[in-house]
Amino acid sequence: EAACISDDSVDHMDVEVMQSQEAAYNRARSNEFLTGPSPSALSSQSQVSDAERVERETQRLWAMVDRETRQVQDQEYLESLKMDRKREEEKQKREEEISDAAAKYVILKSSMKRKRESLPPEPEKGTAARVEVAARLFNGKRVQRAFLASEPVSVLYDWMDSELFHDHDRAAGAATTEEEEEDHGQEFTEADLNYHLVSRMPRRVFDKRDITMKDAGIENQMVLAAERIR
């Protein structure tokens, strides 16, 4: 009898086992809901979370670097544009100054040519009241010419103006190096004609241009010099 178990008993045991398993399953689910995921699940989630955080931080840093790089590049570009604009303005200003100076030089050269051509002819030797004058230019070069004592001192200045200009012009034309061209280039201006004719011994200044050479005391064989007015 003990060895014989009825079908009803087996069915009853199966039901109890199933009920027990279902209860254990429900308890496990309830326990997980209340206490959270298991340590292994937490570890796995933590690793994923750390990786995502590192990735986000890396992306943030790269975005910051990229933004700062663009800002630096933009600033450098603006500075480059500013420098280019400044160089262009300076170049244009130099070109305008050169053009203006060249135009003034052409006008001055034409004026000096007219002065030279308008000088009275030199009186022949032996002519009464003939005054032969020697004069030193700014560079020490000596020039010489004859006039009549009755001619105004202004004629003497016209002669010196043309001599000073043409001496400078000849030196500029003969320049063979850039340094010489800079020294003798188109730099002769009206300011270079601001001078007095003087005698050395005794020192006298002949600045009255509207009187005759005779009245000014300019004598034959007199040596004069062009002296800049400071």
Automatic annotation (TrEMBL):
GO terms for biological process: ERAD pathway. PROSITE patterns: UBX. Residues 78-96 have a biased composition (Basic and acidic residues). One of its GO terms (cellular component) is endoplasmic reticulum. InterPro entries: Ubiquitin-like_domsf, UBX_dom, UBX_domain-protein. It holds the Pfam family UBX. Residues 32-55, 78-97 are annotated as: Disordered. Residues 126-226 form the UBX domain. This is Pre-rRNA processing and 40S ribosomal subunit assembly. It comes from Perkinsus olseni.
